[in-house]
Amino acid sequence: MRSLEVERLSIAFGGVRAVSDVSLTVSSGIVFSIIGPNGAGKTTLLNLISGVYAPQDGLVRLGSEDVTGLAPHLLARRGLSRTFQNLQLFLRMTVLENVMVGRHRHERTGILSDLLHLPSVSRQNRQTREAARSALARVGLAANAERPAGSLAFGDLRRLEIARALASEPKVLLLDEPAAGCNPVETEELDGIIRSIVKDGVTVVLVEHDMRLVMNVSDRIHVLANGKTLAEGTAAEVRSNSAVVEAYLGVHGSEEAARAFG
Amino acid sequence: MRALLDHRWAPVAAIAVILLLLPLIFPSTYYYRIAALVFIFALASLGVNLLMGFAGQVSLGHAGFLGIGAYAVAIGATHLGAPCWLGILGGASLSGLIAFIVGRPILALKGQYLAVATLGFGLLVAIVLTNEAAWTGGPDGMLVPHLVLFGFPLRGPQAWYWIGGITFVIGTVLALNLIDSPTGRALQAIHDSEVASRMLGIDVARHKLAIFVISAIYASVAGSYLALLNELVTPDVSGFLRSIELVAMVVLGGMGSVVGSLVGATLLVVLPQMLTILHDYEQMVLGIVVMGFMIFLRHGIVQGIAAAFGRMRT
Amino acid sequence: MAEFLQFAFSGLTVGAVYALVALGFTLIYNASGVVNFAQGEFVMLGGMSTVFLALAGVPLPLAALIAVIVAVAIGLALHRFAIEPARGASAVTLIMITIGASIFLRGAAQIVFDKRFHSLPPLLGADPIHFGGAAILPQSLVVLAGAAIVVALLWGVIDRTMLGKAVIATAANRLAARLVGINTRRIVDFSFAVSAAIGAVAGILVTPITLTSYDVGTLLALKGFAGAMLGGIGSAFGAVVGGLVLGLLEAFSAGYISSNYKDAVAFLVILAVLFIMPQGLLGRAQVERV
Which domain holds residue C204? Predict the structure, then answer.
């Protein structure tokens, strides 16, 4: 079953072809990683998939539905969620409230009933709060629920963003460099969190630079360079692909690497 | 005790108590009038606060809605034979409608462009009110009859003290309801990160428009009350200075603080009255207040005091 | 035809003032990112100060000079005491500060001067020149010439001097400018000072035609901003063009449609630009990076 499909996606900014003719298929329930050197277009690709940019060419399919060019909030309602490389948290709200916002697409009260605080709203608030608490517990932040989000340590902020995305009960979760700036312990925890998310049936698309995390946790890896697809395969296949090694390390470096591997 | 203070109803109770007890210390009806003005402007600034403090937008032309509400009552009574209470409702509906139409394109703008666009809107309303003299009485304004409800005349400072005060309490309840609800959380989320809000399924444009309409209605009702209290309207009810005063009330009291709207309104209504000798200096003082607060005390007075007492969010 | 020329000239005259205000806006915006709402007050200060100094017996040329110096001093004070302390604040906060400043200056003008309308004697006499059936005030030509000279001088400085290069550098990238040794604080000072001077000069030149009073600043600021937006925010040349075009639009709509809503034209222009072509006539479209 394909949970996400991208066909010949392209976008250019000014004269720069940020993403050029990229196609990939993500089966459901796996960890699909997108890697590549800096400037390869990974985040741009995520932005295209999540509706932040509209592609100039190509298709995006969520499940069997063509969702090309749909606005982010409409994609979110169809079960797509994401985290951001530069953290887009609601720093003025508490940790719990941040995750409660994640429940938005499951909340059923309207503006008028909210204004009047009808009993349905109290009920909704309670349900939302409970669901948010369990999402926090999954990432290990339950103890920090009432603190302002802005007071959390950096590694905790990343986990908070994941909790918030999880609270929306996505079918596909895009993680944009979640290990960036994390120490090895935090990255290890991230590994565990990702595995538990996948165990629940969520498809994870991971953009990451940390190769250890990528190699450990990925079922499939797609390599981008200069906006184009370079290779795709399992971790073992990609690791030994000379073109990939060359793109990351350059020709001289790849020769060094070849010699190192013996 | 902290739990009591933290509870959502604490500010409402406090305001209701103030409303009930204040008349006991009023030496004359003059004070009723001042307090009525405070509640009326607090209502308007509460609307602006919801828009600016919670949803993070900006409106430098909100007095335009004050004007629409005020003149709806005046024109309704004078030219259309409508009873004043109908004028209040009509003004609110008209403001809501205009906010809905104008808000759609305007709220797509950000930052200083939104600020200038709303400024332009406010001034446009003022210009129309000044020019269409046949309807509005032009720069000199027009007289407004007093409110009659179920055969009872409601005029004068005392009546409007109670009407204004009770309406403000209701407005506060509605605002607090909104804050502690999915819509309220969505608005605060939009304030902090529109990108993330969208990614969580929030229809940002729709929410911004909704809060803009709600805040316009708050201002419109306040404007109608103002017209009925004074039994007179002039175009500068919707003027640029008025709009800035409303924003100043919000900033002084604290952006995002419901009680702050009352504090800000109190300061900006009471002080000029108390310092009548400084009447000529009013604009200078307003200018310095706006500058001073925006530079040094951006988060307002209530926040400063709350910080001293530990975290208190109302 | 005569009518058309008449409107065109009055439109260009008033447009020249808008152009100078817009130019001042753009200078400050480019150097510091601040939309200076107090820009209109510089125009008011130029006119009113000259009037009152002249009334106090100071010879007119000297009065005008002192008025410009006063405006410059206030511009510098605005930067140092109101804008600088709030550096790093959001764009809206900064606009609010300049609005506060403009209200303050208006309030002060009300007290220091008075609330009446005042005029100045025109430079070349009051007899209208007849041209193509239209009656053109000689002062109109003075205003247009004055504006042209100011623009030319400014262009000369920006384009031909090291100071000018420093201004361009600061506008392009403040941090980079500082890294190459430019004192960006002084550059912003300079932009405020020059904007104030330009505004004051415009005020002095146009007072014989439009009169002046303590509260002309607000509308002028808005119209100047409209002109800057029309020409393309950030483009100095666009500001001049935008201001002139706005003046013409205003004059023609006042003449042919309704003079009551003359002031509304500027706001309609702002709204139209914001929604239809946010980059203005001559500006570059801005891409938002996520």
Answer: 2-276
Distance CA B313, CA B200 (A): 25
**What is the number of domains present in chain A?**
2
Q: Are strands A203-207 and A172-176 parallel, antiparallel or unpaired?
A: parallel
Shared domain check, A1 and A75: yes
Rounded to an integer, what distance in angstroms lies between the CA atom of residue A17 and that of residue A225? 11
Q: Are strands A220-225 and A31-35 parallel, antiparallel or unpaired?
A: parallel
Edge-first strand listing for the sheet containing A220-225: A80-82, A172-176, A203-207, A31-35, A220-225, A228-233
Distances (CA, A) of C270 to B117, B120, C61, C231, C233: 7, 8, 36, 11, 11
**Cβ pair C267:B123 closer than 8 A:** yes
Tokens 């500082």 correspond to what residue?
C178
Of A168, A190, A222, which one is at a domain's C-terminal end?
Answer: A168
Query: CA torsion, points C168, C169, C170, C175, in degrees to nearest 10?
Result: 160
Fill in the amino acid letter for C272.
A
Picking from B268, B283, B289 by the largest number of C CB atoms within 10 A of its own CB, the best residue to mutate is B283
Query: pLDDT tens-digit profile of B117-176?
Result: 898 899 889 999 998 888 888 888 898 888 888 888 888 898 999 999 999 999 999 999
Closest Cα to residue A49, out of A60, A39, A38? Answer: A60
**Residues A153, A175: one domain?**
no
* Neighboring chain C residues of A45 at a CB cutoff of 8 Å: none
Given B181, B189, B204, which is nearest A114 (Cβ)? B181
The DSSP bridge partners found for residue A228 are A225
Q: Kindly state whether residue A43 falls inside one of the protein's structural domains.
A: yes
What total of structural domains would you count in chain C?
1
> Which CATH number belongs to the domain containing residue A196 in this structure?
3.40.50.300
Cβ pair B111:C93 closer than 8 A? no
What ranges do the domains of chain B cover?
Answer: 2-239
> Does a structural domain hold residue C75?
yes
Residues A67 and A1 in one domain: yes
pLDDT in tens, B270-282: 877 776 666 778 8
C286 lies in some domain: no
Number of H helices, E strands in chain B: 15, 4
Taking the model in full, what pTM does it have?
A: 0.89
Q: Which residue of B has its CA nearest to A73?
A: B201
Distance from C-alpha of C232 to C-alpha of C286, rounded to nearest angstrom: 11
List, for residues B68-91, the tens digit of each pLDDT value. Answer: 999 999 999 888 888 888 999 999
Q: In b/e form, how buried is each residue of B59-69, taking b as 16+ CB within 10 angstroms?
A: bbbbbbbbbbb
A54 reaches B (C-beta below 8 A):
no
Residue A244 lies in a domain: no
Chain C residues touching B295 at Cβ < 8 A: 82, 85-86, 89, 97
Residue A117 domain boundaries: 94-168
Q: C180 to chain A, minimum CA–CA distance in Å?
A: 28
- Which of A:58-87 have CB within 8 Å of B? 71-73, 76-77, 81-82, 84
DSSP A177-240: STTTT--HHHHHHHHHHHHHHHHTT-EEEEE-S-HHHHHHH-SEEEEEETTEEEEEE-HHHHHT
Residue with tokens 């995006």: A60
**C285 Cβ under 8 Å from any chain A Cβ:** no
Residue A102 CA to its chain's centroid (Å): 14
pLDDT of C233-260, one tens digit each? Answer: 778 888 899 999 999 999 998 888 877 7
For A53, name the nearest residue in chain C, comparing CA atoms only: C290
Of C105, C106, C261, the CB nearest to B131: C261
What is the spatial distance between Cα A33 and Cα C48, in angstroms, rounded to a whole number? 69
Q: Kindly state whether residues A149 and A40 are assigned to the same domain.
A: no
Q: At C107, which CATH number?
A: 1.10.3470
Output the CA–CA distances (angstroms, integers) from residue C139 to C22, C43, C200, C207, C210, in the order listed.
21, 17, 16, 10, 11
Among the candidates A120, A150, A168, a domain finishes at A168
